[in-house]
Amino acid sequence: MTYDSASMIQDKNKAVLVIGAGGVGSAYIRKAVQYPELFSEIHLASRTYSKCEALKAECGSKIQVHQVDADDTEQVYQLIQKISPHIVVNLALPYQDLSIMDACLKAKVHYLDTANYEPIDEAKFCYQWQWDYQSKFKNSGILALLGSGFDPGVTNVFCRYAEKHLFDEIKTIDILDCNAGDHGHPFATNFNPEINIREVTQKGKFYKNGRWHEIDPLSESTIFDFPEVGPRKAFLIYHEELESLVKHIPGIEQIRFWMTFSDDYLTHLRVLENVGLTSILPLSFQGQDVVPLQFLKECLPDPSSLAKNYTGKTCIGCLIRGLKDGKEKSIFVYNVCDHQSCYQDVQSQAVSFTTAIPALIGTQLILENIWEGSGVFNIEEFDPDPFMNRLPKFGLPWQVKDNVKSNAF
Questions:
Q1: Helix (H) or strand (E) holding 254
Q2: pTM of the entire predicted model
Q3: Structural domain includes residue 407
Q4: Same domain, 139 and 175
Q5: For residue 2, what pLDDT is reported?
Q6: 378: which strand partners?
Q7: Which range of residues forms the domain containing residue 286?
Q8: pLDDT tier at 183 (50, 70, 90 boundaries)?
Q9: Residues 334 and 272 both lie in one domain
Q10: Is 409 inside any structural domain?
Q11: Contact assessment for residue 278 and residue 272, using Cβ atoms and an 8 Å cutoff
Q12: DSSP states of 142-190 as a string?
């Protein structure tokens, strides 16, 4: 794939600053350097400078690297001032969203992330903290694009695309996330262990008939036949895109999020919960305060280390029901991604790849002024077509199955 560079460069600044050099950040950088015509400069920054140096050794002069503490707004601001990027891509931890947004506001540069803000001392997903920045970003004339990953991200765009092209009215949405891969470890998480376990162990939550409903963690499940994967048990959990889609898809009656987990994963998780290692409340150990979940994170494999031996596929999509031309209609719009194909492309596993590529596409659409505006936006607020058109070009092909019948829903 090539792009007409002359037509792209509507202004001279196509520099991007990526913060975070973990599994997603590394995949983003490796993919970005495959398309040098998209950027005037690519900068990577992390608290762990050695990770940046390793990518620099691999990519050479295509990237520039820096050290920064993303919790320190002033440090991030000073780095932005030094680099003068067009956009800051936040691939760090959700705890750091507001700090980086504050730095972008101070420097008046665009912002993009893949997951909503979460306070470090409370396992709670909520966009309101970031939505409260609406007037600040609007008055500063800059754009904040929230949730440009896969889920949230691609799943939101799937829903907006379906609303625009496939339905007159959307009644229900079930977002289904299946990782049918095998990484060969007794227990490991596919992205940051701390964030993953906090997400899974909180109460399930879904929207129905105008209000939110809560259930006990992992207390409701169903079997769904995932394309190219087969039947898998999926559990109802809460995920942040539910909150924004309820706000931005008019007339929706019900929306739920389902994720698959292996029996081994659930057994290990149950044991870890029972012995207190998933707690985020500090305890005293040998005169020091220790957060059990943070300690557990250090004991588990780094998600980026899973990639080389990861086999199998992911299948993530949206089962959408509604009306078209007065008739009931159901579709499943989805992507299937192969772990080994991702490793061959950018040395990552599919979970990192499926988050990094949508972030890269979101960056491109902002750099090219295709998605533009002032304020804070969730990804489904923009025209879905340019994003959907780019997904297969960057390695995330999608399909639509019509008239999906499932006893599970």
A1: strand 254-260
A2: 0.92
A3: no
A4: no
A5: 36
A6: 146
A7: 154-348+397-402
A8: confident
A9: yes
A10: no
A11: yes
A12: -EEEE--BTTTBHHHHHHHHHHHHT-SEEEEEEEEEEE--B-S-SS--S
